[in-house]
Structure formats: structure tokens, C-alpha cells
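Example record used in the benchmark description.
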Amino acid sequence: MVNRMRHTRSHTKNRRSHHKITKPAITVDAKTGVAQLRHRASAVTGMYRGKQVVNVDAKLTKKLAKQKSKKAVSEDSTTEKTNK
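Model output (C-alpha cells):
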């Protein structure tokens, strides 16, 4: 069995000094004026480096349809419980 080496407070703090949190790099879009994180597609326009990479309209309509169907299912289950 190996004896464990002790480590001092200074050694521990030295190691943890690399865990420092940095601020996120935020830029403002020149066309829309919306703040966004760097190296990511815009959530508003779906553009990245001048190209359309995400169809925001299709994504929004899909999300709304999913919410609507989820709401309809929950309403159906509540009406079944009240009818019993």
C-alpha cells in the first residue's frame, strides 16, 4: 500500500487557480442590434458568418405545434378524469 502524500493549502490553491470563471464573449449584431455569444448562430435571425444556417420560422412553428398538441393531450386527460 502506498502512503499518500500530503498537499499544502498553497498547493491546493495553486491547482484551483486555473478554475477561474471567465466572462462570456458577447458581441452585438450589426444588422439587428441583438447581443449574442460569439461563434454561435443568432437565435433571432438564424445567421452565422453571413449565411442562413437555422430556419427560425420553421423551428418556431414546430415548437408552437408541439405545445398545442401537448396542451390538447393534457386537456383530454383532465376531462376523462372529471367524467369518471
